[in-house]
Each structure stands twice: as structure tokens, then as C-alpha cells.
Amino acid sequence: MSAPVLMYTTAVCPYCIRAKQLLKARGVAEITEVRVDLDPEQREKMMQRTGRRTVPQIYIGDTHVGGCDDLVALDAAGGLKALLAGSAS
């Protein structure tokens, strides 16, 4: 079983698309998306939770991975698969 993935996104965001593609390539079947462009309250919540205002903001389980570049770096360092499996990275 893989850890749940939550991603704050907007409709037209190439970084969001890239992050989703990478996660799916690593076996993630379901990504819970929170569209901050449709709900300004969710953007405020995202900014309070992450300290960042850009999308995507990605959580795997309880771990805030960060944005797309952070996700790609985590994958390149070999930590993404362990995090998705629910192991500490």
C-alpha cells in the first residue's frame, strides 16, 4: 500500500502536470488534488500550512515534499520510492 498523496494545484500549471506524471510513473494510482484556483480559502490554507504560495505543493502521507523541483530532487536522490512506500526517507 502506498502513502496517500495530496497535491495543491491549479488548472493550468505545467509543474503540477509534471509532478503528477512523475508520481504516476512511480506507481501512484490516486492523487488527491486541491484546486486553489477554484477556492481562495484553500490557497490561504495551503500558504499557512506550507509557508509557500506557489503550486504544486505536495504531501506524501504527513510529509511536505514541497514543489515539483523538490519532488524531482527527492526522486533523483532515491528517497521518493521509500516515502511512497511509507518508509522514512
Q: How many beta-strand elements?
A: 4
Could you give the order of the helices and strands? Answer: EHEHEEHH
Low-confidence residue ranges: none
How far do the termini sit from each other? 17 Å
Short summary:
By secondary structure, the protein is an alpha+beta fold. It has helices at 14-25, 40-50, 68-76, 80-84, and strands spanning 5-9, 31-35, 57-60, 63-66. It has a four-stranded mixed beta sheet with strand order 2-1-3-4, with helices on both faces.
Describe it.
With 89 residues, the chain is α+β, with helices and mostly antiparallel strands. It is built from 4 helices and 4 strands, in the order E-H-E-H-E-E-H-H. The chain has helices at residues 14-25, 40-50, 68-76, 80-84, and strands at 5-9, 31-35, 57-60, 63-66. The chain has a 4-stranded mixed β-sheet, with helices on both faces. Helix 1 links the parallel strand 1 (5-9) and strand 2 (31-35). Helix 1 packs parallel to helix 3. The mean pLDDT is 94.
